[in-house]
Structures are given as structure tokens and as C-alpha cells.
Amino acid sequence: MFALDDKLLALRGQAREWAGDFRAAALDVDRDPDGIGKHLDLPGVRFMSTLMIPPEYGHSPELIGGYRFHCSTALERTVLMEELAVGDAGLLLGAPGPSMSGVLVDVLGDTEQKQWYYDRLLAKPTWTFFGLTEPESGSDAAAMRTALVLGKDGAPSVLTGEKRYVGNASRAEMGVVLARHRSGPLGVTAVLLETALPGVFAEPIESLGMRGARISALRFESVEVPSNRVLGMHLPPTKRGMWAAVQVFDRLRSSVAAVALGIARAAYEYVLHNRALLTLSERDRLDRLGASIDCARELLHMAAAAVDYGRDGGQLASAAKARTCRLAEDVTVAACEFFGPGARVQHPLLDKLVRDARGVEFMEGTGNIQRLNVFHGLILGKRRSPSAPQVPVQTPR
Questions:
Q1: What is the dihedral of CA 241, 243, 246, 252, to 10 degrees?
Q2: Count of CA atoms in the C-beta half-sphere (13 A) of 26
Q3: What is the structure's pLDDT at 363?
Q4: Beta strand segments in the chain, E
Q5: Is-contact 14 22, C-beta < 8 A?
Q6: Cα 125 from Cα 217, distance rounded (Å)
Q7: Quick one: how far is CA 118 from the chain centroid?
Q8: Low-confidence ranges of the chain (pLDDT < 50)
Q9: In this predicted structure, what is the pLDDT of residue 311?
Q10: Given this model, what pLDDT does residue 385 score?
């Protein structure tokens, strides 16, 4: 069993309080994603807006239960994200803050770039975006068409292309975009981009689930990017581009899995609170759903700890992401069956949970991509030295 220490228990307790505010706003955000601004004063949203900003860049970590948090570890983020997603995954993912772009800036940015980026986030709640997926090729870096012509001698670089299915892009002030500046595996570069620049166009894509996250499309028409906004130029080519994007996925995959687990738990708890009388078979079925959620959480926490300790390449987190996303779909559909054929009409929150559960499957790689990553990890594991440190895996049944 994986036990949380007192610090993580304090974070979980506070996050559960914040989740009540998220639940109260859930259906409102789902109906009107553009009205999310009215919820920016919620304590949990304010906490998300500065998540992961290092103290050395002017951020005073939140004091919770006598401990200070800015959630720099995967395990902290996993505990936080599960609880807030029980409240509402849409508001959680639609909150302003660094999110995925912040991890890329942390990996690739120099001191000046990080200071500029973090100053903007600390000045006011600011939405950001992470632009990788493209209309025709998804996240396939080899097929990336968005192009960056690097400027010479301090001249601006020129960005042209499109990105699709980018969270919060239509409301963001800045973000990161990955583009190809030459062919080959080392030909991808990331830029730190302000959406106010001429030639940047963003529009929301209507979606059934995760509506609060305002999934968007981006278009770049000969956008001039200042030379000091090209990320990673102080690093060797092998540490830029897609290598850095993989670091983002490895660090945040367990957080996405936690969102899926939170959705599953929200549906499970909805049945507990709204079905006073259960038959023996219904009680047995509900208990099995609860046990599946608990087992998935054990896997998820160990996966997050493995990321923090550098014990694998994200394969355990891939297993957790695939498992929790499938679980979210199974539990939300099963929860509706406890209320009869009209459940999704008569229980709007359950309907929202079903839609959100389907949406989280496509975030940070679908189940097939995660299973492929697990397979690669198994192959690599066969070649690893027997003396290499291992993290035990508990597979939920």
C-alpha cells in the first residue's frame, strides 16, 4: 500500500474544501465556458494560477496545514488534481496558470525567459497554452508542418502554421508553440509566444466534454517572434524541441490520470449520496466500483513517485493514465445505470461527468499511445541492469 505523509494529507484536505467550490460552479462553467472569469476569486482557482512557479522567481508558496506548497512534485500535483477534479474537471483545466507551458519553460527557458514568463503569471491570473497537436498529424513530430524560420543576428524568427485541440488558447495571453525549423529528429524548436502579436489567430472549438477548458484552434500567419522568445538556444540541440516536449508529458501524465480518477470518483460519490436505498446486487456493484477506484489510486501514486524519483521513463504513469481513463468511462456510465434510463436527462451533473470522462481520454495521448509507451518500457526493462533501482508495480484488477 502507498501511504501519504502528513504534508500530502494536509494538501488533500485543503483540496477537498476547494473542491466544494468547484462543484458549485460546475454546471455554470459547462453551460457558459466564456463566463469562467466570474470564478477566478475561488481559492482553488487562485492556487492553480501560480502552480509550480519556483520561489526564486518571486512566488511565495501557499501555506497549508503548516506546510508550504507550490506543487513542484508529480505526487503533490496528483493528490491536488484528483480532489479538484472530483469538484469539477472543467473548471480545474480551465483555470488560468502555467500548466503544460510552464513545464516546458522550466525545461527550456533561460533565466531571463523564465523571469519574464513568471512575472506575467504573478501579476494577475493569466491563461497559457501548449501548442503541439496539428490538424492533419496530431502530435506526430515527424509530420509537423508548423514552420519556424530562425532569424539571424538577433532578427525575429517567423512562425507559420496551425495547431488544433489546444486547451485555453482562445483565452490565453501567452503560451508555447513547437515548430519545425529544419528536417530531422532535432529540427523541432519551441517558442514563447504572445497571442497579441500580429498574425496570431485563436478560436474555440465547440466540444461536448471538458467545455471549461475551452479547446481551441490556433493559426499563425508569418508571426514575427522576437529572438529572445526562442526557447532552448542556450542548450545543445539534443535537449530542445521534442525531447523537451517528452519531458512535459512525463512530468504531467500522472496529473492527467488524476483528473480521470477524480471524474470516476465524482460519479461514484454521486451514487452514494443520491441513492439512499440499494439492493444487495446494487450495493455489491457499487462496492466493486469503489474498490477499482482505490486500486487505481495506488497505481497512480506509485507512478507519480516514480516520476519524482526518476525511476522510469514515464511508463508507470502511462499505465496509470490508460487505466484511470478507462475507469472514468466505465464508472460514469455505470453510475447512470443506478438511476434508470432517464439518468442523463434527470441528473445534469451525471451527464456532464459522462461527457468529461470521454474527453479526458484524448488529453496527453490516447490509451493506445499509453499502452505503446508501457510496451517500450517493458522492452527497455529487459535490457536494464539487475542492480538498477526498481519501483514495485501493483496492477489493479
A1: -80
A2: 25
A3: 81
A4: 62-64, 67-69, 128-131, 147-149, 157-167, 174-180, 188-194, 200-204, 215-225
A5: no
A6: 22
A7: 19
A8: 382-397
A9: 67
A10: 36
Residues 240, 244, 248: CA angle, nearest 5 degrees: 165
Pairing outcome for strands 188-194 and 174-180: antiparallel
- CATH number of domain containing 95: 1.10.540
Q: Letter for the amino acid at 42?
A: L
Q: How many domains does the chain have?
A: 3
Q: Are residues 101 and 161 in the same domain?
A: no
Contact assessment for residue 300 and residue 320, using Cβ atoms and an 8 Å cutoff: yes
Same domain, 162 and 263: no
Contact 227, 268 (CB under 8 A): no
Q: Write down the pLDDT at residue 354.
A: 98
Question: What residues have CB less than 8 Å from 75, skipping those under 6 apart?
Answer: 8, 254, 301, 304, 305, 308
| pLDDT per position as a tens digit, 70-96 | 898 999 999 999 999 999 999 999 999
All three cell numbers of 76, joined, read 503533490
CB 327 within 8 A of CB 290: no
pLDDT for 369 equals 77
Cα dihedral across residues 86, 89, 93, 95: positive or negative:
negative
Q: Residue 313's pLDDT is what?
A: 61
In a domain, 54, yes or no: yes
Burial class (CB in 10 A: 0-12, 13-18, 19+), 28: middle
Q: What does the alpha-carbon distance between residue 322 and residue 365 come to, in Å, rounded to a whole number? A: 9
Number of Cβ within a 10 Å radius of residue 154: 8
Residue 276 in domain: yes
Contact 85, 261 (CB under 8 A): yes
Amino acid type, 267:
A
- Asked whether the beta carbons of 23 and 87 are under 8 A apart, the reply is yes
User: Is residue 141, in this structure, part of any structural domain at all?
Assistant: yes
Query: Mind listing the pLDDT tens digit for each residue in 328-342?
Result: 999 999 999 999 999
**Inter-residue contact 44 to 71 (CB < 8 Å):** no
Q: What is the pLDDT of residue 283?
A: 96
HSE toward the beta carbon, residue 348, CA cutoff 13 A: 9
By DSSP bridging, strand 215-225 and strand 200-204 are antiparallel
85 with 57, same domain? yes
Judge if 226 and 176 occupy the same domain.
yes
